[in-house]
Design brief:
The protein has 13 helices and six strands. The chain is mostly helical. The protein has a domain of 149 residues: Outer Surface Protein A, domain 3, CATH 3.90.930. A three-stranded antiparallel beta sheet has the order 5-1-6. Strands 2-3-4 form a three-stranded antiparallel beta sheet. The longest helix is centred in the first third of the chain and has 23 residues. It is elongated and about 85 Å long.
């Protein structure tokens, strides 16, 4: 009696097989062998010919998968790549794609987990600041595509009475991020240094103004105000937050108010505030 014809795999099983083969580190043929499958196991799925077998054709896509993502991540993390060098960055991304394979269909998300992965990777042992640098680069990418908001303008605020100004509810635009690092990461931005930045804690404000993402270091007092402004708050309450943060160093109310208003004026100029 003739043996029963082998049932074709389900679409889901076929998709999972092809994905596993294309993302295998040692190539399609080795991945087939590891599964106990012969080199011609794909002949019924992918058309081969005298020039290229089915496995060889799939290998083309497997190579494209890795090098396309490598190129994308090198563009997204240029300073991290520069600090590591070409070969070490290549090895890092190889390990990353093996242990944290992208699960999102968009290449935009391919590097989402790289900063966290770097914190545990061997290449960061002698560069403990590397993950923080990658986190800043990733924040730039995410905020570039972040949600829009209409920023408050100086012209709009100048028409308010003092009472209306002090009680006006505002909040930070959604396209912002506060990053706290144990190193002065901002020093690496202009020119990545392989010997690393000073080991001093730094809080960076990252935000998008129009189509450009910026970042700058902020003081402890400004950081307190920024955290308060993540939710709706009035200008008067922001000044109180600043005064509370500075109370230990000065009790001069006029000086405190002047410093707080300087910060708020910069926020408006930077396009950081929107109506609540």
């Amino acid at each position: 009696m003739a043996s029963e014809a082998r049932q074709p795999p389900s679409l889901r099983a076929l998709q999972e097989l092809l994905y596993d083969l294309m993302t295998a580190p040692a190539g399609v043929t080795a991945a087939l062998s590891a599964r106990g499958l012969p080199p011609d196991a794909l002949d019924g799925v992918i058309a081969g010919d005298h020039r290229l077998s089915a496995a060889a054709r799939l290998d083309i896509y497997a190579n494209m998968y890795f090098f396309r993502i490598l190129d994308v991540l090198r563009e997204e993390f240029p300073r991290t790549a520069g600090a590591l060098g070409t070969d070490r960055f290549h090895d890092l991304i190889t390990d990353y794609l093996l242990q944290a394979r992208p699960a999102h269909p968009s290449l935009r998300e391919a590097g989402a987990r790289l900063p966290g992965f770097l914190r545990e990777h061997a290449c960061a042992l002698d560069r403990p600041w590397l993950a923080e640098l990658a986190a800043l680069e990733r924040a730039h990418r995410e905020l570039f595509d972040g949600p829009d908001a209409e920023p408050l303008t100086l012209e709009a605020l100048q028409g308010l009475t003092p009472e209306a100004f002090s009680t006006l509810p505002v909040r930070l635009i959604p396209a912002h991020r506060l990053l706290v690092h144990p190193f002065e990461i901002s020093r690496l931005w202009e020119a990545a240094a392989t010997d690393g930045p000073p080991a001093r804690e730094e809080t960076l404000l990252v935000w998008r103004r129009e189509v450009t993402v910026h970042h700058r270091a902020v003081s402890a007092e400004e950081s307190t105000m920024l955290r308060r402004a993540a939710a709706p708050v009035t200008f008067a309450e922001l000044c109180e937050a600043f005064a509370g943060a500075r109370a230990a160093t000065t009790q001069d109310e006029a000086a405190l108010a002047a410093e707080a208003f300087q910060i708020l004026a910069r926020w408006v100029d930077d396009g950081l505030l929107t109506g609540a």
